[in-house]
Amino acid sequence: MDFGLSKIVSPQEKMIDGYGTLSYVSPEVLLRTPYNKEVDIWSLGIILFYMLCGHLPFKGDNQSDIADKIVNDNLEFDEKEWTKMSKDVKKLIAGCLVKEPEERITIEEFLNHSWFKKNLKNNLK
Asked: What's 95's domain CATH number?
């Protein structure tokens, strides 16, 4: 996908340089605050949101507008698009897209989330 803009970091290493595609980048990357693996959980939430409804959660007319919305706007689930989606998946996505990285769910919590486990099990049959 976008591995030309990626970087491998050790578990304890913190980054401040910006890597990634704007629409998938977490607020801490845009704010140039030290960050680490939690940015991948944010991106995972963006991807899951996109896969389920067909558009990105933070849209704008230009890059500056998109960046501003990622940093400042609250996540919203449009009722028309998300009415058939379970509360579980909305909770999972919302857990990924928490602005404060230390409050975001972990990869372990993601993998053990009931919605993920149920859908993984259904797709392996």
From this structure: 1.10.510.10
Q: How far apart are CA 55 and CA 103, in angstroms?
A: 25
Q: What is the reported pLDDT for 34?
A: 87
Query: Please, which pLDDT band fits residue 5 given cuts at 50, 70 and 90?
Result: very low
pTM over 0.85? The answer is no
16, 33 Cβ separation under 8 angstroms: yes
DSSP 21-74: -GGG--HHHHTT--B-THHHHHHHHHHHHHHHHSS-SS--SSHHHHHHHHHHPP
Which two three-digit tokens encode residue 76? Answer: 């919203």
Distance of CA 94 to CAs 3, 34, 36, 64, 87, Å? 25, 22, 19, 23, 10
Q: Are the beta carbons of 52 and 85 closer than 8 angstroms?
A: yes
What residue type is assigned to position 114 of the chain?
S
- pLDDT the model gives residue 1: 38
Domain count, the chain: 1
Which domain range does residue 79 map to? 3-124
